[in-house]
Amino acid sequence: MDINGFRKAQERGENIVIEFKESKGGICTDTYDTVCSFLNRFGGDLYLGVHDNGEICGIPPKAVIGMIKNFISTIGNPEKINPTVYLDPVEMVVDGKHIIHIHVPQSSEVHTHNKIVYDRVNDSDVKVTATGQIAQMYIRKQKIFTEKKVYPYVKDEDLCLDMLPRLRQMALNRNKDHAWKILSDSELLQSAGLIGVDAETEKTGYNLAAVMLLGKDHVIKDICPTYRTDALLRKVNLDRYDDRLIVETNLIDSYELLMGFAKKHLWDKFHLDGDVRISLRDAIAREIIVNTLIHREFTAAHYARFVIEKDKMYTENANRAVNGEAITPQNLTPDPKNPKIASFFRNIGLADELGSGVRNLYSYVRLYSGTDPELLDGDIFRTTVPLDDAYSFDAETRKPKNKTTTTETDFGNDFGSRSALTPTQERIVRLMQHNPKITIKAIAEQIKLEKRTIEYAIEKLKTTDIVAREGTTRSGVWVVKKDDEK
Predict the structure, then answer these.
(1) Which helix (H) or strand (E) element contains residue 259?
(2) pLDDT at 229 over 90
(3) Segment (H or E) for 411
(4) Which fold has domain 406-485?
């Protein structure tokens, strides 16, 4: 980590992977809480000798070597950090002041500090005491595919095997020479990886993937009692809902029910791709619904949601997070959460190859709303699609909106040609116009989003040359560029 790297950390401020500690009188106990939480989450960078706001307070030069030795000794003590780790603190001199930088990598183990498990949530170190939460951490660390868990006592009568002829035909509609064409039902289930062997009892049986794809409702409820997708329409009654659908059935039927909900409440905009007419509504709904069905962590105690609002729709589902970052086509690293379920959906034509869904979603949403979607990886995976009923890509027109937000009224609108901004980005730009000295933390508080979401949105605004930062973290200002300045 060089000085430029530290400057970037100052600008971003404390978040899920950055922490500042003053450490004037030595290393405080909560420093090791942060080390533990970084190890248990995505890793991170810890700076000693820096105020919470990023201002350097410095460490007395003579105290640096002693603090480094003390730190190394503590993290190597199993009574303090367990399992022990080796980290390499580095002394840095910035603006004539000494600080210590400690890079903490993500660990494959679940660590404790003073026998307490810590996890990183936003910019805080949180004690984890619930057994279910700790279990989820082990699942995330060990890359366990819970869909492979075998249930030897689940029998044929517990599954909706009468669905197989329809599913076989769906596969043949996609590929007339599909291998399922000549397989018997039992061979099809075996080929799809829905039958496994219990490592403990050595008994053969249906696995969780089979239960979720084909199980009868009561069987799914017994095995995964928190499995549910709550679909809500909130356009008029924002406190409750205008329409609601609770889905607690197998994944195949869940897909059809949720697609029906989307078709009922979303504008159907068509797009001509050459001579082919595409329903953008159906294409987008398919991508986000399939994603929330096949990539969720079914053992987590969190209900999935599909919410349609006036200016956006979003899905949320329990997830085994990889890095906690926003996902874009540029940084996408395909990571299957339930490879057997995902493969089954691909076989019947409801999903594409891993990774192509994100690219498709970006392409379709730009045509549908004129903006980009937002996909945030975390223990709760969230996909947000901006909605604009007045936008029409094919007509190359944008009807004036009837609504006027408080932000637009207060700060004016000189972004008429920047219709590609997402609602979040637009609000950020307005706040920067109104107060060029506003901090990222203050923006996050006003918009009521996590800091890392705001940081990601600002990075996109910078890369598209819409905003720039001038000056230092403490005394600098945001500069919003007009179109003729770009």
Answers:
(1) helix 251-265
(2) yes
(3) helix 406-411
(4) Arc Repressor Mutant, subunit A (1.10.10)
